[in-house]
Structures are given as C-alpha cells and as structure tokens.
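User:
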Amino acid sequence: MIHTFVLFCLCFWRLIGVFSDSVSVTEGDTVTLFNDLTEIHEDDEIVWKYGAENTLIAEIRRAAGILNTSDVPDGRFRDRLKLDRQTGSLIITNITTQHTGEYQLELRGAKLTSKAYTLSVYARLSVPVIISNSSQCSSSSSSSSQQNCSLLCSVVNVGHVTLSWYKGNSLLSSISVSDLSISLSLPLEVEYQDKNSYSCVINNPIRNQTTHLDITHVQV
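Assistant: Predicted structure:
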C-alpha cells in the first residue's frame, strides 16, 4: 500500500500539463512554434511531432548531444525545418498549405509537458479584377447613361475565402468557398452614372484584398 501511495505521488508530481494553441499564417511566411522556454537545461529533452500519426520531425536531447530535424514520408518539410538552439522552438520556413495540421510538442525534464498546435496556412490572396460583360459600361456607348452596367468581380487560384460586393460600407452580396485553387466570380448590376462607391473584397480569416470600382474605367 505504501509503495502504491508513493508511486501515485510521483506520478502526480510529474503530471502532464497539456496546453493548446492555434496559429494562422499566409503561404510563404516563416513561422515559429514557441515552446515558452527561455533556455534548454542539460537534462531537457524536446520532441516535435506532426499529424495524426505523430510523426517525429524534430528533437533536442542536450545530454546526448542530439539536435535533429527530419522529414515526413511525402517530403513536405524538406529543407524547411529548423530548431532554435537556445529554446528548442520549431521554425518552419517558406510554409505552404501542405503544412496545415496538428503539431505536438513534448518537453521532458523535471516535469513532462505536452502542448498541441493547430496550424492553419492560407494561400496568398490575389487582387480581385472587375470586368464588364457588356458594352453598356463603355463611355463610348451612345446610350450608356440610360443603361445598367453588368459587372463581374473575379479572382483565381483561391481557397477558403469569401468574395463580396460592397456599396460604401454596406454588404450587397457575397460567396464563400472552402476548396483550394479554384476561380471565383460574383456579378453586380449598377447604373452607368451611379456615383455611389462600390468595391469588391476578397478575404480569408487573416487577410483581405480590395478593388474599388471606377465605372468609367472598368475593363470590357
């Protein structure tokens, strides 16, 4: 009974602290997943794992002189992983949407600490292009002042975004997609001599791009 109680106390003292963090970045960025250490002690062991399979991608074992990074079978981390030698934080350079996923940190020392990271990587946003699908938007049209102008706002190679038309600060219409690398378009019809301010906006959770409408110079 005494041995059982002592074992329980030791396990309680080394209880795993589990923390989680969410990180959102843009493709091409350099990202650091911090482990909150200011320095690595001699008996510390730091292990980084990736994905549902918990594949080992980096480790530091100071006492054994080990500081390594390693790739996963599909090669997505090739030449992209670094370890901060002082803190053991994981650095991912030139990140792509392939690196979206779960990362797991295990710190083994005086106590065992585990921290999970959910990393979301968004593609860079292209600038929306506004075009007309009729000659009625052209100032050379003799009846343009009496006609409606049919417009189309488009973006290419996007994913996990919302495309919207605004009149001033008021939302007129929008469309959202979760697929990757698709083209997206949203129509709008206005009067040729309408003096209101219109804009087309594409956004994801961390970025946006806006094109303002100048109806006298819209592409036909």
